[in-house]
Structure formats: C-alpha cells, structure tokens
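During the first year of the project, the team set up a workflow for recording each protein of interest as an amino acid sequence followed immediately by a discrete structure-token representation. This format lets reviewers and collaborators read both layers of information side by side without switching files. As required by the reporting guidelines, we include two representative entries from the current panel. The first entry is reproduced here exactly as it appears in our internal archive.
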Amino acid sequence: MKLTVLAGQNTFSAELPEPECTIQFRMIVQDLIKAEINQKNNVTHEPVEVPTPSVKEETATFIQGHEQTSHKGFMHIQCPNCGDIRSFNARTNISSYFCTSCRKTSDLPSALIPLFVACECGRRFRYGTNISDSMFDIPCLDCGSPVAVQLNNKTGCYETIRRYAKGAKKG
C-alpha cells in the first residue's frame, strides 16, 4: 500500500505493508490535529534548528530502519532448493517465490541485487536477482539471445559485459 504526504511543493511517498501504512497514517493525522489545536490556542514553541541530512544519509537511514521484505517488478530468481532459474515480472509486492520445478515455496531475501541488462538488439531491462555468481547469462526479453552479465564490485550491481573495452579497436 502506498502512503503519500504532500506539503506545498514537498512530497514523500513510501510503499508499506497494509497494517504499517494504516498505523503511520493515523500517527500523521494525530500529529496534524495536535498542531492545529495548538495553533488555535496560540501555543508557540521555540524554533529548533534541525540539521538537514544529505540525500545519501537519508537513504541509508531509511534503508537501515525499514528492511524491505517484499518486492515487485522484473526478477531473475534462482530457487534455493533445486537451483532452477526463472525470470518473471511481479506486478504486486511478493515476499516469497514458488518454484515450478520442485514445487516448493521459498522466501525472497530482504534485498535483491540490481541487475542491468543491455542487449545488442538495443533493448535495456532492469531486474532484481538473488543470484550470487560473479557472472552469468540472462536471455533478452525481446529477442531471446543470451546476454552476459558480471557483478560490478564497486556498485554492487550486475551489469552487461561489454564486447569491446573503451578505446579498443573493433575488428
């Protein structure tokens, strides 16, 4: 469930599970009602200067504080029971995966590794994966040809292995 807060030109959105979203919504409404009552009763507070964290710190704090337990979008998942690999698009948030080969359900990890695929046919795709190999092939969604991807240790993402290095002559 999506919770969105709008204040002038500021916007904040969070994708939360149903019960957590309801709790957060009620807390925000209670705080707003208290602020409105204090304003009507002319209650003033001393201004407090709050340091503004950088976007990187804010994101890291959010990720540490709220562990993602469900995922949606394109996924390339390897079954932990039988090792079968399947790609699919989850249109709603899911927290577990049903393997059609071994007929078992497994929980997805709290964080999937980003996987960027750039096929020679020109199409580009983004997936999340639980595969921990240093490199593997993934079929292109459009043309079906295999695309080799490799883990970039600097970014922590899987990226397409380029045919030619920068500056190298083709042919």
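The second entry, processed by the same pipeline in the following quarter, appears below.
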Amino acid sequence: MEKDINQIDHIISKLGEKIKFLRTEKSLSLKELSGRSGISAAAIHKIESNGITPTITTMMKIADALGRDVSYFIEEARKDKDVVFVPAKKREPILTFKKGLELSGISAKKYGDFIMTAAYAVLEVGASSGKKSMKHRGEELVYCLQGKVEFQIKGQNYVLGPGDSLNFRTQLDHKWKNVGDKKTKLIWVLAVPPS
C-alpha cells in the first residue's frame, strides 16, 4: 500500500514537468496554452511548478490542448515504445460506451504513443454509433473482414462488405451502423496527428 502511495506521489510530482516539456516543445507560451485550454496562465504556471495539483477536468483540458491523452501524463515511460507487438491472445479490451460494439487493441496500448491507433472491432447486429453524427480530430481507416456496416459521412452513405475499406477525415460529421444480419468484424484505425 505504501509503495502504491509513493508511486502516486511520484506521478503527481512529474505532472508539471511533463506539461512544461510539451508546452515548450510546441513553442507555446503560458498565455497561448491558456487560450487553447481555457485554463488560466497563472494556474498552468502553478501546475508546472508543482504549486498545485490539477483536477482531472483541468488535466483533460490541458492534455487536449497539447494533443495528448491524459494517460500520457500519468503513465511511466515504457521501454521499447518505438515497437509494439500485440500477440492475438493478449489483445486488451478498449473501453467504449457504444452498445453492441466490442473493441480489442491491436496497436499501442494508449493514444499518443503513436500517431495511429488500431482496434479489432466486433459490431453486434443493429449496433450503431447513435442517432447523432460525431466528429473529432484525425482520420479513420476501416477495413471490413466480415458482415456489413454502413457509414454515413457528411450525408453520404457507404456500405462496406468483406474486403471493402473506407478512409475519411473525422472532422466530417459521421456515424455508423451494422446493417447486416450477423456480427460485423472490422479493423478500425484512427490516426490523430500531433497538434
């Protein structure tokens, strides 16, 4: 237990250093990062100098403004992060709130390790991304292995069957639905360039 507390304290003590490193690497002033994140320059300065510990909401805003996932700031550096091998039997599930969608990681474990992140996706019959379209930074590449899935991108429908692929910029309104009569299996790649 004490070891866990010490590890947590160590991670918290490195937050400011990591934020400052990324900010200066991107040649951003405190004021510019403040404008991007909505967090005051004074608060960012205090976080960088370990004067205050940020809330999770603050960390999410700063991480987004720096083009990183929050996990970048709380995970320790790993060895061999330039190469990631994922054996088929050791794929880890990826958390999703979309009903009927099961994702297994086939690439780096977290966003930000590489520009691309990929998953093996299984969509139950009728599963969808929801009624509303979504959009976000980056690009997606979807390759259909089995079944039938429909993507609607900027009002245009694309139906993918086995062997079909779809590549699109995700700042466009998009949504998807399994329109087949069996589970659909996909390779789903997301690429988010550093900001």
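For the second entry, the following points were noted during internal review. The chain has two domains: 2-74, 88-191. Residues 58 and 73 are 12 Å apart (CA to CA). Both points are flagged for discussion at the upcoming steering committee meeting.
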